[in-house]
Specification:
Layout (H helix, E strand, L loop, with lengths): L10 E8 L12 E2 L15 H4 L10 E7 L7 E9 L12 E9 L1 H14 L28 H6 L35 H8 L23 E7 L4 H21 L32 H11 L6 E3 L13 H6 L17 H9 L17 E7 L3 H4 L11 E4 L2 E4 L3 H5 L9 E7 L27 E10 L6
Antiparallel strand pairs: 1-6, 1-7, 2-3, 2-6, 3-4, 4-5, 5-12, 7-8, 8-11, 9-10, 11-12
Helix pairs in contact: 5-6, 5-8
Length: 468
């Protein structure tokens, strides 16, 4: 569709070893763990209490990923932050994981986009656009590089779920970790909706409130990026029947939790986090697809495809009900030499809808898939050694570890999930503004948008211990 982004290939992230302290100072470096690095030193930043404190247990959450993920048609340098509570009992619960999208205006790149829009904008004829030259303003609209109808028609009149940028700032083809212009420092469901509405909103102009030293830190690691390449024929052939069964199951109601072909057996496959001799109870077609695709690159810790499709861990849980994954036909017909075969497999296996997710509160745009964290990150990061200490109770005058469920918590190995998905504003808006027109036509007019701004996005978790 004209004016919309091309869906790029899936990019995979892998741990590339411990990060040197000297490198862990750049907000535009992709990394795992470490401390959150903000886009400038003066703009208001997210509230630590509402961003990195678990809303279940009130413990400090751990930064799992900070990634520089600019979009080629955006005037902003863009960074994604993902936190999660490191207590297993909180995994998958509301407020136990957060994702924040950070924006910092890149003036040089903004001017490049404005010049490009000006060059491609049709010029009015000498006679104007109206009859006999009337009705034409003659003014060139530098316009939006891209917009959506939802944003254009609703951004003026709609009442957002909450107003203003969530955190600070005077708001306004994917390269994951790279961009043509290097970054420069500046001169729903009710439960999910309630979770987002609970955020405290900082008023513009307040003094910046720095975070206290983060107590839940794991050493930072470099995040290396590579494009995913799949053996598409094997996947499509193997799952043609499972795809059909998954669609029929969704149409008939909730799954019984039994495997679609009736088998209870399992098969081993490579990868530390994926080695299983027996499939977990509740195995479904999604898990089969997840394991086969993930096993081709078993060390992947993140999958990134802005506007793309997630790889579901299950078709049976609450997250699947929200996103309603399904397929459009029972099989995939393609030639082995077809260049589009891989994308056909991706699309076929993971159709989904975000209609039930809260819309962007600033531009009313839909949320779209941006990335997902994979189970391998749970072994790459030393999470088990950074689990918050459990409470103790006094019993018969002595202090002992709590029994029962609390005793089990003492064995906590940290956060657990099958996959953690992040869904962001489809427009990548800046406080409701999109495109380049509002920036003006010169660098001097961009000053009001120079401050960094941060926006909360949606996180959905599918647990490894699937419910039956």
């Amino acid at each position: 569709m004209a004016g919309r982004r091309k869906v790029e290939p899936v990019m995979l992230g892998f741990s590339d070893g411990a990060m040197a302290a000297a490198d862990d100072t750049d907000a535009f470096t992709c990394k795992l763990g470490g401390q959150a690095l903000w886009l400038d030193t003066t703009s208001e930043i997210p509230s630590q209490a509402t961003t990195a404190i678990c809303q279940q247990c009130k413990a400090a959450m751990i930064l799992l990923v900070q990634a520089y993920v600019p979009l080629n048609d955006s005037a902003y340098d863009r960074v994604l932050y993902v936190w999660a509570c490191n207590r297993r009992e909180c995994s998958g619960k509301a407020g136990a994981a957060r994702a924040v999208r950070g924006h910092l205006l890149n003036r040089d790149y903004a001017m490049k986009l404005i010049r490009s829009a000006r060059a491609t904008k049709p010029q009015p004829s000498a006679l104007g656009s109206g009859l006999f030259g009337s009705g034409g303003s003659g003014k060139i609209d530098f316009g939006s590089v891209w917009k959506t109808e939802a944003c254009e028609s609703k951004q003026e009149n709609s009442k957002p779920m909450f107003s203003g940028p969530l955190f600070g700032g005077n708001a306004s083809s994917i390269s994951f970790g790279n961009k043509e212009q290097e970054p420069k420092q500046p001169e729903p469901t009710d439960e999910l909706a309630e979770d987002l509405e609970a955020l405290e909103i900082a008023a513009p102009g307040l003094p910046r409130e720095e975070w206290a030293m983060e107590t839940a830190l794991v050493p930072a690691q470099y995040l290396a990026i590579d494009e995913e390449v799949l053996e598409t024929a094997a996947i499509a052939d193997k799952y043609a029947f499972e795809i059909q069964q998954a669609e029929e199951s969704l149409n008939d109601g909730p799954s019984t939790g039994k495997h679609s072909d009736g088998s209870g057996g399992g098969e081993e496959w490579s990868g530390e986090r994926y080695e299983r001799s027996v499939r977990p109870q509740g195995t479904d077609a999604a898990f089969e697809q997840f394991t086969d695709i993930a096993s081709q690159n078993p060390e992947q810790v993140i999958r990134y495809q802005f506007g793309g499709t997630p790889l579901f861990y299950s078709f049976q849980d609450h997250t699947a009900q929200l996103l309603n994954p399904s397929s459009t036909s029972p099989s995939i017909d393609y030639d082995d030499d077809d260049d589009d075969a891989e994308e056909a497999v991706r699309t076929q296996l993971r159709k989904y809808s975000t209609d039930k997710l809260p819309r962007c509160p600033h531009c009313n745009g839909k949320r779209v898939f941006e990335c997902q964290l994979m189970p391998a990150i749970l072994t790459v990061l030393p999470l088990s050694t950074h689990v918050p200490k459990q409470d103790t109770v006094s019993e018969e005058g002595g202090s002992k570890e709590q029994s029962g469920g609390k005793w089990m918590q003492a064995l906590d190995l940290g956060v657990e999930f099958g996959t953690m998905m992040v869904f962001s504003c489809e427009n990548d808006c800046h406080g409701g503004k999109t495109g380049t027109q509002y920036l003006g036509s010169g660098g001097s007019s961009m000053g009001r948008y120079a401050a960094a701004a941060y926006y909360e996005e949606c996180v959905l978790v599918q647990l490894e211990s699937m419910q039956v």
